[in-house]
Amino acid sequence: MNEKNSGTFTLINDKTGDKYTLPIISGTTGPDVIDVRRLYSETDHFTFDPGYTSTGSCESSLTYIDGDRGILLHRGYPIEELAEQSNFLELAHLLLFGELPNQKESEKFVHDITYHTMLHEQLMNFYRGFRRDAHPMAIMCGVVGALSAFYHDSTDINDAHARMVASYRLIAKMPTIAAMAYKYSLGQPFNYPQNNLSYAENFLQMLFAVPSEEYKINPVLARAMDRLLILHADHEQNASTSTVRLAGSSGANPFACIAAGIASLWGPAHGGANEAVLNMLTEIGHKSRVSEFVKKAKDKNDPFRLMGFGHRVYKNYDPRAKVMMQSCHEVLDDLGIDDPLLELAMELETIAREDEYFIERNLYPNVDFYSGIILKAMGFPSSMFTVLFAVARTTGWIAQWKEMIEDPTQKIGRPRQLYTGPTARTYTPLEQR
Ligand code: SDX
pLDDT tens for residues 173-193? Predict the structure, then answer.
């Protein structure tokens, strides 16, 4: 990797006067880090950082975020340029291999992914074990976790070819698995992948085609879907990516690691926020109630938070939210939909961003704030929103997992703690309690 030592940090224990010198490591851009790997062995102290607000868990060269300036780069390329000029599989290649593919590499990568989109036929039986009203994220956790039972030949994490096959299988099969979860909830037959279609077009046909009529691809929706996938592909060491890395650090197979990532993404504070945003906008219902909900969001005694607002890293506008809003207008205009929820969302953003509470805390719309409105316009129920996020993020997860496995310094993740429970005491027999 491109790290380099650049000076030292000296810690002084004021109680004992002991001094400890810790190396500072610089990356190619962004904050330097204090290397605390020797801290415990030298000082008998742990660092303490619940939620890892000030902790770097790894070295990575995939994605860089400057939260203060609202910058997101994938291998150095700004997300705005990738969303405008690239496509999802090209970004997948960039994340996996570090460079945008040339024409020949692109054709081979697209072919290889395309020819992994089918699922083992027996996996279809898994769906029938779920209730029809099962949340599709529950189905995703179950089916993806079961993949290692069907693709055992690509679970040897120490074999580079097996790692590549597993990565391709996951990127290729996630749309098929997601579409089948949606079809199952509708009681409609599953659609097989069509190899003559692009990744986004194929995803749409598996989701929306029915046997009784020809499915016509809407190029505006296909472009919007491809852009949605690009915007959700990877995002540094967020909760679900850290989950995948921690699971993978024990040597667990990649299918199980991605299933763990899906479970973490489901939370409303993370990937589940897009579904929560739409539910929130529906509950607000009308512009006249926006101020009431902004007041609730500011009330410390009220657990309500403005869903789709705020971010652990971005203290400026999430660059993905800007692209998402543009896409929103394009899709709604093309479909001739005048969704009052979009106007409501824009009113909510305006009021919140003029409010001292949100300004002081640098709370801006994040990637989830507008995405639900596009997905609703495309015909998705809100229960499918996080599924689409998981389809896209699988590429980031597996690229981060591959980077970790191929990092010679990686070891099993095993944080410590500040123990505040009872100290040692003697067992009291039942009759004496
Ligand atoms: C994603 O990490 C990633 O990269 C994630 C993601 C990705 O691509 O992987 O970008 C995707 O998860 C986007 C975030 C989606 N979640 C939501 O939209 C849910 C609503 N947002 C909040 O839950 C919150 O903003 C978080 C969870 C996103 C971030 O929380 P932090 O970093 O722990 O910040 P915090 O809770 O410490 O908030 C700081 C202050 C607090 O107030 P004070 O204690 O200082 O008085 O801001 C307040 C919070 O109460 N606050 C909010 C708020 N978000 C933070 N108040 C009202 N509404 C909100 N949405």
Answer: 999 999 999 999 999 999 999
DSSP string, 408-423: TT-----------S--
Least-confidence region, from 229-238, 285-294, 398-407:
285-294
Whether 1 has a pLDDT exceeding 60, the answer reads: no
> Dihedral, CA atoms, 173, 384, 271, 72, nearest 10 degrees?
70
CA distance 203 to 194: 9
Report which of 189, 89, 188, 174 is spatially closest to residue 137, judged by C-alpha positions. Answer: 174
256 CA distance to ligand 1 middle (Å): 28
Residue ranges in 354-433 assigned as alpha helix (H): 356-360, 368-377, 385-405
Q: Which residues are within 8 A (CB) of 238 and not within 5 positions of it... i.e. 6 or more apart? A: 270, 312
Helix then strand count (H, E) for the chain reads: 18, 6
Alpha carbon of 62 to ligand 1 centroid (Å): 23
The residue nearest atom 13 of ligand 1, judged by CA position, is 270
284 pLDDT above the threshold of 70: yes
- 71-74 β-sheet, strand order: 63-66, 71-74, 77-78
Q: What pLDDT, on the 0 to 100 scale, is given for residue 213? A: 97
**Catalytic site positions:** 311, 368
Top mutation candidate among 305, 351, 389, 400 for ligand 1, by most atoms within 8 Å of CB: 305
Nearest alpha carbon, ligand 1 atom 30: 312
Predicted TM-score (pTM) of the model is: 0.95
Ligand 1 centroid to Cα of residue 417, in Å, is 24
By alpha-carbon position, which residue is closest to atom 8 of ligand 1? 235
Lowest mean pLDDT among 2-6, 117-121, 150-154, 428-432: 2-6
